[in-house]
Design brief:
The structure is a single chain. With 443 residues, this protein is an alpha+beta fold. The chain has eight helices and 25 strands. The chain has helices at residues 11-20, 73-77, 99-107, 188-214, 264-267, 314-335, 411-429, 433-442, and strands at residues 23-27, 32-43, 51-56, 61-68, 85-89, 92-93, 112-122, 143-147, 152-154, 167-171, 179-182, 223-233, 241-250, 253-257, 272-275, 279-283, 296-301, 306-310, 337-344, 347-354, 358-363, 369-373, 378-383, 388-394, 401-408. Strands 15-14-13-12-18-17-16 form a seven-stranded antiparallel sheet. Strands 22-21-20-19-25-24-23 form a seven-stranded antiparallel sheet, covered by helices on one side. Strands 2-7-5-6 form a four-stranded antiparallel sheet.
Length: 443
């Protein structure tokens, strides 16, 4: 794996260390290769070594010899030349050091200084690769570092469903600067391994950040999961636009933010916020996808708003699906009951969903119970999309069924909440139900 055209020196080690820690850190030399490496011993005199330098990671360039002072100790060796890269000083590598840090290393290296240098030799002319041309050429950096906390990973061109050939992009939380990793061959396993490693590390760091935020939040406001996802925006029949957004799952809510909130005030102003029980989740099948972005779900709210959300790869989709299902079940168990205004056979009633007792109809005037049916007797339910909820129940010790129809003021919200209660009920009877959602997502 390379960053555009790069030397292998320091690259693999830097990236591996970054995955263990909190950032992706890449050192490379674009376009040119190392050649004629030399180890030179220089004795410092009263005027110094006789070498001035340029470059450093803060200049996105390796540390190079800028000038060799004539008749200096460095010049007298005949082995140090302007433009040479200084790889290390007395065995201490200069890769990843700023210009000032590199200068300090040389200044404090002592009287006898061992310099490991190399000449930069341009590569032979090659046909430019697919990622070396076009408007995004400036993404290929000689040195870059991207923090992974609340970062995101994508293999698509910005805002589209078009895959970048053999390429992974890592975008930091604030979206400023990005890291593009390009595999020279078409080894999909290598790309998948990098994607999995990066996404897993990002999710782990996001969990730690959520734990930190939860220290100052009330229980019902605590964050269960959060991270960057891609939402499909309203588009024309021939154009699909995807936008990076932050999805936040709380104990009782699910929210979308345009960017990661950096202040208390921004946390209070999400772009969209829904009660968790009033949202249904469904994994989109292949034939339902509007473009090439797979691993997508649809979040449908009882308010009639739908959000199509895409995740970078299948494990991430499965983790989010399981997390939302688990949290929804927890919210139902915490609330236990939800009721809705409606009418039944001409009477003004409350339809109550009770996790322990099932469906209950109360008279609104005197709160007397008109009928009650447990969830396990529900055989079929449907609605007309406007106000009518139709319920069909089995009868104990009988093949006959009982049909009831309730007119509700907030039908769609009630349908969403009913689905949440039924999921919680199934989960209470079958502990493997939540784990089964991963298999559903995979299928």
């Amino acid at each position: 794996t390379t960053l555009a055209e790069s030397s292998d020196r320091g690259y693999a080690h830097s990236v591996c260390m970054s995955v263990v820690c909190v950032c992706v850190c890449v050192c490379c030399v674009p376009v040119q290769e190392m050649a004629e490496e030399r180890t030179v011993l220089v004795e410092r005199d009263a005027t110094g070594l006789g070498v001035s330098i340029q470059g450093g990671c803060d200049f996105k360039s390796p540390v190079k010899v800028y000038r060799v002072v004539p008749n200096s100790r460095a010049a007298m060796t005949g082995q140090i030349h302007e433009g040479d890269v200084i790889l290390d000083v007395n065995g201490s590598p200069l890769w990843g050091k700023t210009h000032e840090e590199a200068a300090d290393v040389l200044k404090n290296a002592g009287t006898f200084v061992t310099l490991h240098v190399a000449k930069l030799q341009p590569r032979e002319a090659e046909e430019p690769g697919p990622m070396e041309t076009g408007p995004e050429q400036d993404l290929w950096l000689a040195f870059t570092e991207v923090p992974l906390q609340m970062a995101s990973v994508t293999r698509y061109h910005k805002g589209t469903s078009v895959l970048k050939p053999n390429t992974i992009q890592v975008l930091p939380c604030d979206g400023r600067g990005r890291l593009s990793l390009h595999c020279e061959d078409e080894d999909s396993a290598q790309l998948n391994d990098w994607t999995t490693a990066l996404c897993s590390t990002i999710r782990h760091l996001n969990k730690l950040e959520a734990e930190r935020l939860n220290e100052s939040l009330d229980r019902n406001e605590q964050i269960i999961d959060m991270g960057y996802v891609y939402e499909q925006l309203p588009s024309t029949p021939h154009t699909t636009v995807w936008q990076r957004k932050v999805l936040v799952l709380r104990r009782m809510q699910i929210q979308l933010f345009r960017a990661y909130p950096s202040s208390v005030e921004e946390w209070l102003r999400p772009e969209k916020s829904y009660k968790l029980l009033e949202v249904t989740l469904r994994v989109l099948k292949a034939h339902e996808l509007s473009d090439q972005r797979a691993n997508s779900i649809i979040l449908a709210s009882g308010m009639g708003e739908n959000h199509i959300i895409s995740f970078e790869h299948l494990p991430e989709l499965s983790e989010w699906t399981r997390s939302i299902h688990n949290t929804t079940v927890g919210a139902v168990r915490h609330l236990e009951k939800q009721q809705f205004l409606g009418q039944w056979r001409g009477q003004r009633v409350y339809l109550c969903l009770d996790i322990k007792r099932g469906f209950i109809i109360y008279n609104r005037s005197d709160l007397s119970q008109l009928w009650c049916k447990p969830f396990h007797q529900l055989r079929h339910s449907s609605d007309d999309g406007h106000a009518s909820l139709r319920l069909e129940f089995t009868q104990p010790h009988s093949e006959q069924t009982m049909k009831e129809e309730v007119e509700l003021e907030d039908l769609q919200i009630a349908v969403c909440v009913l689905e949440s209660f039924l999921s919680a009920r199934v989960a209470s009877l079958d502990p493997g139900f939540i784990l089964g959602t991963d298999l559903i997502a995979a299928q």
